[in-house]
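Milestone M4 deliverable, item 7.
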Amino acid sequence: MLKNRQKILILSGPSGSGKSTLYATLKEHIPDLYFSISTTTRQPRKGEQHGREYYFCNQQEFEDGIKKNLFLEWAKVHNNYYGTSKDLVEKALKSGKLVLFDVDIQGHKNIKLHYPNAKSIFITTPNDAILQERLNARASDTKEIIDARLKHAYEEMRHIDEFDYLIINHHIQNSKEQILSIVKSLECAAFDPEEIFKSWKTL
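Output delivered:
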């Protein structure tokens, strides 16, 4: 498969917008999906496991990875580092998988620099009140952290025109149908013309 025909999808949007739920839908319906698990220095939330939601490490380990140029992209958000391993992504692409990223705005920009033909979706709630309600319902963050996430969400919303698609996650079933439609459309775009021409006989 030609490099510019690789299947790459970037998800971004405020924390609490429903990205994890929509990822679970893709995992259920897309057999050749590779979810790029980020490395982070933040503490695991209740129920999270190393190597499933994130690769958890300490700050020194992460900064060593930056020096060794091991990350495709990285950023510091809410005083914690987040990054994406280069090696694992390249292996997945070479095997023909659809590679899915869940990153912030800066991560989206950096991945687009490496893979300009990647498609991206910004996922958000209809308004800030609903986002705050969902963050409170998670009961995993302090009020200070929730306030910081809401402030960060305002900044993220300023970049929605940089994305290929927008999903306003109000009714989850509708959002699931929308994201599946987007992913299925990638199959029609990710083709290698040279390989297709080989199957046609010269008249």
